[in-house]
Write a structure and sequence with these properties.
Chain lengths: ~350, ~350, ~350, ~350, ~350, ~350
């Protein structure tokens, strides 16, 4: 089955290990971005995953594209043009020191995309699912309109749409996000968000929860899911629940709300190798499991197990197979050597 | 005192850090193998440890041999010949993602060994102890017969023999293992195994234990040791007990059964740097402590402390001194800086 | 405000990651030393921090000096001359295996310093604070006298003086330390030490405490602080309290005793990236917070948070900003990503 | 235009820089093989290049496949199965020390290919060109027959066929090579070889030439080309001419013989970064230029310039664009910075 | 003596060794820019060198600033603000493959500088020399006006001014460059350029010269220097003369024209480690030698020897001492080991 | 045959690639020293080579010892004790920038050796040859006397003795060297030196030669050999002749004078990877070839070919086999790939 995701692919530059930016004499060169990460997840599960973006013609843009081809993502729909590839600098945290991200993504080829760059009727042809995140419209310019174009086209073609709210305070204000996302959401079938997004974007807050104290109220988030559904008519809402004990250790789980029922996943204590892309790997797992016909609880468990494993993988991309996810979702969390 | 170990030495190729195989652009190049690992342990404790194997003449075979010479292992008995060095690819796991081993050891120079390659009367001359693991006969060909040759020669020379069952399901079936090992065991004085081996090889199972759930029953394993002893007449049986909490954290301990008495070691919560070779370092510690005349409990504590430390050392080889092991066995597990 | 610190700056040579010395084929090249570490902390907080030492003229000495300039430390007072830069080799421990330090610092340019090398009236001109550690007089030669020169000059200029006892058993005996430090302490206003120093240097022991068992008695250390104050007339005494669970995990806190009152900080469970320089980063934080007019509890919390963060930073130097320390001291220990 | 190449893809393991095998503690992990190298060249020029081989299902096999996808090679026709990926170890030489290759490719998944693995009618569907090298039949087993299957199918479909003789003395004897290649050659249109192959495979020697003395006779090779053409009816014969001054410096050129005319290329003095794959990059350039309709001299110059540039690129694959090759072929060999 | 240089400092991201961009999995992280490179040269010679620019407040900007402090450059005049640090990606060439630079410097903090950011009366206070290159005005916005501000202020203060024409075709057209530089040049005392700049910026061409063929006419460049002097009234004109044999080997020399006399330097055959910053190191050497009172020929020889050595140093900055330059300028080009 | 060499083994710390000391953030960790280098050469040729020195007991000393064991050197005669391992920092030069060595070897365990540390009757038992260099007595203390002890013992045992003059101006003056070496030389059978040593140590100068201009007079060196022989009664004198074109390119050859006849070797143009240990590899080759019964010209050619190859090997040790040397000495300098 074919899934199309749409968003920005950035160059990720990260000092080795736990070096701080001011210590580094080299930077790891990988690529990532919310929707591209989802596409890689899906390609690794054997799906026909296509990623749509705009990349500059030069070698750095080419290297970005190659990073997707390497994992089998369909890159035929990628538009080439513009001048620069967006960048994010990532400093990995440990213990009480959180990771630090510095964005240098303004004026990227993708952010300057024009509506005419994307022929959605062609790009979405044959697709079962279209996915994007709140980062894409947050980049501004014509991107909110392009997202609307894509969603309308998807609806016309009967394609399921999903969106990860993914609020980024450095890209837009809560007010801007609320307005733009509020217009797009009615076209979205499946809404994914984390423990903070609904509050940031739509002012929908979980009762009894303090994110920075690292303790979340399960009950509070049922209310969030219910209200999101009520407001936008989603078919389902998934909320990932991260308890941040430290930069090295988190608890990770999720809930899924659909048909007025709520499902909670197992919760995993994760020892973190790289937590960037955790939410994206959840979306990737959820889309795969749903399209593969898993029942609701199993789909949720697959998505949470997939994203649990992501925390053990360096880079944005979740490089795990469906079999590996199934093994964990099926209960083997012992991390024994496989020979 | 001179100890001879016999088995395969492989090239170990591992991506840096926690990279997955598909991410790697380089592979760490070290060497290892159950019996070679034991020899290095013993050389590091100051013993006269000789390792017997067959290695190809080319530079990769030479590098393997050099890795042993570097740590003072006697390599004079190593036969040179054959075409390829066995390889294992190792991907280190973290958190819920287990380590992954891919073997490429078929048709290695060692696996194709012939009985005429090894003159045991010469090789075992002057030795106090002969050690091998179940991996060696599992390689097939003439190796079961060669193991029998070695054991018979050892018995004739009055040398103590030890064997780590070390079941590898990708090398032979449980049935094959049970048959071959069943024939060799009567020649063995000391049997070492882990929490799974006795069940895999001889169908002797610990009551009340689920290895994948990470909780082991101490009582159950007394029964295993007793039955092994009853069946094969071992002078002693040691069983390492690993509780796998995750790929990053394990609990590690062991029991020793001898003269109808059982001894349990302290249990260590280990934060894993590299767990490959953990069992081998236990055997190395046990042989050293036994040959050095430690009393039974002290010998067991030395072996467990040695293998506890191994989990903090990169590579197959346990690069710790007897003094370091003694310090831990003596109670200082605080990991404070030594200046 | 200008702070002057005085001591040795060494080349630190450390194998990558958790490699043992005998495995290494390269060594990380950084620089560090108790008082230099304090100077870097202060420069990172925006203070005018000057470091005084003696470095050889050659390129290795120059690289040492450059490592301080890079972070904005004033190096104008550094004397150039002598032949060699002191070295310490550092092997990072993990789990039950402690870190190992091998010193090669004898006959360094600094250790062979002469009183005439340092014109304290010039060096301390305009300073608010002078800081050194017990390592400096421990190096012997003329250094105890030079320390006395500096302290006398500081007292004459009305500069606050602080000293971290920092006992090093490989540099001098407890008796030597007690005698020399006992003569210098009356000139010192603020005394910093760790959970072992007071006992090692002055025989002042905390009741109910076993450092190697990793459990410290808070009450016992109040007595230590009180006795230190009684004996030497310190304005305040700060004691860092490290509970060593393993080489990977420590609990970290401190107490401050001043005006006959005792203040305890929060205690942090730290997952260790690099613990060398932990005490120095505490001194740096305490000096900064005190000179910045924080109240006593806040100053202590700043110092402990600063040194908590140090444990997550590679190298001797604590490369964190005052804002980062404040964020942790203010309660956000969740280690969430900052974008 | 679609080109299909067929052969083995191996894991290439090479110590960093100029380290010898016995010095290495890591090995660069890349992939390569004569025909795969040609496919990557062509994909980099924008052609529709498909590579056919057989790779094991495991992650090392997957990494090999990914290395081709990354550069846009069509991997749909790759058969998955078998146990091991062939390996070659490469030690890079310098000055008077030649590079050293150790092969460990026996029993690879590809070498054990069966005729039934490849459905040539499907694989060659729509192709303009089919390319293989003498290494493929040299691997033995069913591979000579499979090559014959492919060539017959190509002929039936009217596809141009090319073969690089690529004699490997460690795979077969001159006699074996002569016999097998002699049977395949009548189905081949374009023959590529280096300054030694024709003599090794078919006993056709250039007059006045000593390869090891590093001086080649241009005239002598015209005779070689003429005799090859006479014997097998090739449409054209290309011979690369390498003068080995040292492992660091070579002179590089080629001749092309077609329609009874001989064309000589410019000769380039190359300072070598990595010479493996030099011949393959020539074949890739020649196929591209020929299929693109270049005139004969221009096609030869393109092929030689392409392979000249290959010597400056690390790894087997020639990662240069057609524009870069054209710039060099057009005369700009100054190596100035392009901004 | 105090020298002030003004321009952009960029993050330089370069694959290791000779890797192409599409191969890299990490990028070396250094910093450079024409005028900053000159400042570092001068600081290494012991001059009081100040660099003026504008850098963002974040850690990447800080790392850039630190790279200058490390080598003793005075960074007090650096303005902090703006959002991004300009970047250039550098792929090092070899043999016939030239190096490749991809700029991503638009919208940098420096490029968006405003006239009010720089208080030249303060910045130039006490300076003997002010230096900039043609890249600074080429960045557009207010920078041409800011350069004019600086030059006027310098003239008022009696400071010698120098400019390296440094034409960059990707920043502006020849016409734009000619117009803007034509207005600034009358305020400049010393003009530096390479073998192409005068033609690119002012249409002044050397007779008998083909840069891409790697052969330059010494006579032709005398004419260039004479015409530049005639047009703009320079006190002296220096022209570096690079003969590009390949990306690995260049010949390097220069001429200096002053008081109607021409001086030619020795010419050095350089084996290139890193040629970026070659011209800047020439300017640095020339400024140092001139300010130090060298006679004309000696000053030219110092500048050429300095820049010859730069080609052996990785990174933009020329990290050589005046003594090292003098040794080469004095005739010892044998590259023998210094112990 | 058994050869014993005696001298210091140092830790060699070198920045990666062509980095300057002030750029390095890591240092390659290898070991080397004139006489140890000879021992490794001989062990690689399959000789029974023993190295005698004194090394500290700690892990850095152990790593040094391991580096010899790895290559099969007999380390049984190494004395353990003392405090520090001598160090040399090596910065590799390129083109016109020469390599730079900074020694930090004073007060090393070896330099502080006492006569009682070495029982020469035991150490030289069974040896055919004893070798040392002028560096050993240059270290002072008891070492000149220890060298005399060794030489006397060797003479008593009928062992051939050889010495490489190896003058180091930073260890002693020409006068000191001349005096001490003048006393030792009468006990030496074979004298090896480079193009500068005889002049530095004994004031014997080659006519018509300028070392720094990179051109040596073959005739002049015949006179040097003749005079050395006349003065000290050597059985043979070998002089290596290095023409330093640049730090990257040298010409390398040698002469051997024996029985009043002079033999000149081929001269090799070497492209340098690492030239440290070049002279030692010559001594190693000469000892091997002589002990193996090569005729004089062949022995000289072997020694020169061995040391030619050394220039292509990283580190002090010459890691080449006798077969590789023979291939080059036999005429194949083309550096072609060996498969």
């Amino acid at each position: 089955m074919r899934i199309v995701t749409f968003g920005e692919l950035m160059l990720r530059l990260a000092p080795p290990g736990y070096e701080r930016f001011v210590q580094a004499s080299s930077l790891g060169m990988t690529f990532g971005g919310g929707e591209a990460n989802v596409a890689v997840s899906l390609a690794n599960y054997g799906m026909n995953a296509a990623f749509v973006t705009k990349l500059p013609q030069h070698e750095i843009g080419q290297a970005a594209l190659n990073s997707l081809r390497k994992y089998g993502v369909d890159t035929v729909g990628i538009v080439r043009g513009g001048k620069r590839l967006g960048i994010y600098y990532l400093e990995k945290g440990a213990s009480q020191r959180g990771s630090k991200v510095i964005y240098d993504r303004a004026e990227s080829a993708f952010a300057l995309s024009e509506r005419g760059d994307y022929d959605w009727a062609v790009l979405l042809n044959g697709a079962s699912c279209f996915h994007f995140t709140g980062i894409t419209p947050a980049l501004g310019g014509e991107l909110p309109a392009i997202c609307m174009d894509a969603l309308k086209c998807a609806k016309k073609l009967g394609i399921t749409t999903s969106c990860d709210l993914n609020y980024r305070g450095n890209l837009w204000t809560r007010e801007q996000a609320g307005k733009v996302m509020g217009e797009l959401m009615p076209m979205v079938d499946v809404c994914v968000c984390n423990e903070e997004d609904a509050a940031d974007v739509f002012g929908i807050r979980a009762a009894d929860t303090s994110v920075h104290a690292g303790k979340l109220s399960r009950e509070g988030y049922i209310g969030v899911a219910r209200e999101l559904t009520a407001r936008f008519g989603f078919k389902s809402v998934a909320i990932t629940l991260r308890e941040s004990i430290s930069a090295s250790d988190n608890n990770w789980g999720a809930l899924l709300y659909t048909d007025e029922k709520v499902y909670f996943s197992k919760q995993y204590p994760v020892h973190i190798v790289d937590r960037v892309g955790g939410g994206d790997s959840f979306s990737g797992g959820l889309i795969y499991a749903t399209l593969s016909g898993f029942d609701t609880q199993a789909a949720l468990e697959f998505a949470v197990a997939a994203s649990c494993l992501k925390h053990s993988v360096e880079g944005d991309y979740n490089l795990v197979s469906a079999a590996e996810v199934q093994r964990l979702a099926g209960g083997d969390a012992s991390g024994r050597v496989r020979r």
